[in-house]
């Protein structure tokens, strides 16, 4: 029977980096990802046979390129522990920039009868919607996705986190109900023949790719959004590393004002937004 240290060494010999090996070992042991220090303190402990079997399967999957989050079934986003699997895109830290920006522009609650309303388009795992609701319980948060499979994951996350979100299956704004103070979206934005898609082959293609230039869904959302925004409402979009200029131009051409972009933690212009007129 191998020790924990030997099990880590064996995992690394299969091509895994140290962090992935540690996280998979913790997963096999049924321990939380935050207990990496525990592994170091118990490196001479024997690995139970059942955990060794789980670890072997996990290492094979990771060595084959499957994302860690799909193997463990968990991904942290905006301080929330989200369940994820191959039905949904894995939430990225870049998208937290979009959440922070939305929280800045959403109005404060004026009364219980008039909560601020926000819509998350293409919600996937529910990451954005749940992050907004967990940060501001007063928000009325709706979320739309075309994939019923993805909505299954989002609903499970909302239920487990005890956060009330109005989920609906629809294609983009065809499922919008009424008007909103803000519409936020992390839509597909990779060009359909982009070589980067191969590295993302384990994730759902429909959540990644959008037409020849990657901007097909973004253009569709921008064209339709004003009709579903309250006067002075904001449309906030995540996009690719080299798409900020094109997205800002489309927002301006469509009549949005206060058009601007925000950089993510790596300094890349990751999100762009615009505001409707106060009297539209």
- Count of discrete alpha- or pi-helical segments spanning 4 or more residues: 10
Percent of residues in helical segments? 25-40%
Along the chain, the helix and strand elements come as HHHHHEEHEHEHEEHEHEE
Task: Write down the overall mean pLDDT.
Answer: 92
Q: What number of structural domains do the residues give? A: 2
CATH hierarchy, class of the largest domain: Alpha Beta
Report the uncertain regions.
none
Specify the biggest β-sheet: 7 strands, mixed
Span between N and C termini? 71 Å
Q: Which structural category fits the helices and strands?
A: alpha/beta
Radius of gyration: 21 Å
CATH topology of the largest domain: Rossmann fold
Question: Count of DSSP E strands?
Answer: 9
How much of the polypeptide forms β-strand, as a percent range? Answer: 15-25%
CATH architecture call of the largest domain: 3-Layer(aba) Sandwich
* CATH homologous superfamily placement of the largest domain: Vaccinia Virus protein VP39
User: What sort of overall outline do the alpha carbons produce when their principal axes are compared?
Assistant: elongated
Q: Major sheet: order of its strands?
A: 5-4-3-6-7-9-8
